Amino acid sequence: MSAKQYDAAPAFTIDLSKKYTATIETSAGTMTAEFYPEIAPQTVNNFVFLAREGFYEGVIFHRVIKGFMIQGGDPTGTGMGGPGYKVRAEFNDLPHTRGVFSMARSQHPDSAGSQFFICHGDPRFLDKQYTGFGKLTAGDDVLEAIATAATGQQDRPIAPVTIRTITITEA
C-alpha cells in the first residue's frame, strides 16, 4: 500500500492534444478506461500523475454500493486518506452513468485528492456536483464483480479488491 504524500498538486504535464487511457489491473481482473482531459484537464493530470507514481498500487476499493458505485484511491483504505493535497473541482457535462470515473470528495467542492469512484448504476444526481473525467471501455464484468461483492459496515467489502497496477497510455 502506498504511503506517499506530496506537498502540492502535481505540475501540469499532460498533453491536451493526446488521448489518455488507463489499464487498471486488480485482484478481480482488468478494467480499461479512457480519460477526457478536454473537460477535466487538472483532474486527468492528477490521476495520470498518481498512477505513474505507483500511488494506487496495493490500494483497495474500500467502499462498494451495488447499483451506485465502487470507490478506491485511498492509501489508508479508510475513506479518509489522500495524497496530501487537494485539486480544484472541474464540474462538467459528463453524465454520471454506468462506467463513468469521477473524483470523490468531502462536502467542500475543491476537496478531491486521490480517491475516485466508478459508477455502477446511473447516479445522475451527482451530475455537475462531482468531477467526471473518464469512462470504462473494457472490464464491465470486473466492475460488476466488485460492485456486487458482499459488504459489511460502511459499505466496506468483506473481501476487498486490490488495485495491483494502473498503466497509463497516451496516444
TrEMBL record:
Catalyzed chemical reaction(s): [protein]-peptidylproline (omega=180) = [protein]-peptidylproline (omega=0)
- In the UniProt record, does the keyword Nucleotide-binding occur? no
EC numbers, comma separated: 5.2.1.8
InterPro entries reported in the protein's UniProt record: Cyclophilin-like_dom_sf (IPR029000), Cyclophilin-type_PPIase (IPR024936), Cyclophilin-type_PPIase_CS (IPR020892), Cyclophilin-type_PPIase_dom (IPR002130), Cyclophilin_A-like (IPR044666)
Q: Please name the GO terms of the biological process aspect recorded for this protein, alphabetically.
A: protein folding
A GO molecular function annotation here is: peptidyl-prolyl cis-trans isomerase activity
Q: What is this protein called?
A: Peptidyl-prolyl cis-trans isomerase
What is the enzyme's main class? isomerase
**What function is annotated for this protein?**
PPIases accelerate the folding of proteins. It catalyzes the cis-trans isomerization of proline imidic peptide bonds in oligopeptides.
Keyword Metal-binding in record: no
Q: Could you list this entry's UniProt keywords, alphabetically sorted.
A: Isomerase, Rotamase
Q: Which family does it belong to?
A: Belongs to the cyclophilin-type PPIase family.
Which PANTHER family does the entry mention? PEPTIDYL-PROLYL CIS-TRANS ISOMERASE-RELATED, PEPTIDYLPROLYL ISOMERASE DOMAIN AND WD REPEAT-CONTAINING PROTEIN 1
Question: What is the organism of origin for this protein?
Answer: Armatimonas rosea
Give the classification, highest ranks. Answer: Bacteria, Bacillati, Armatimonadota, Armatimonadia, Armatimonadales
What residue stretches are annotated with the PPIase cyclophilin-type domain? 25-168
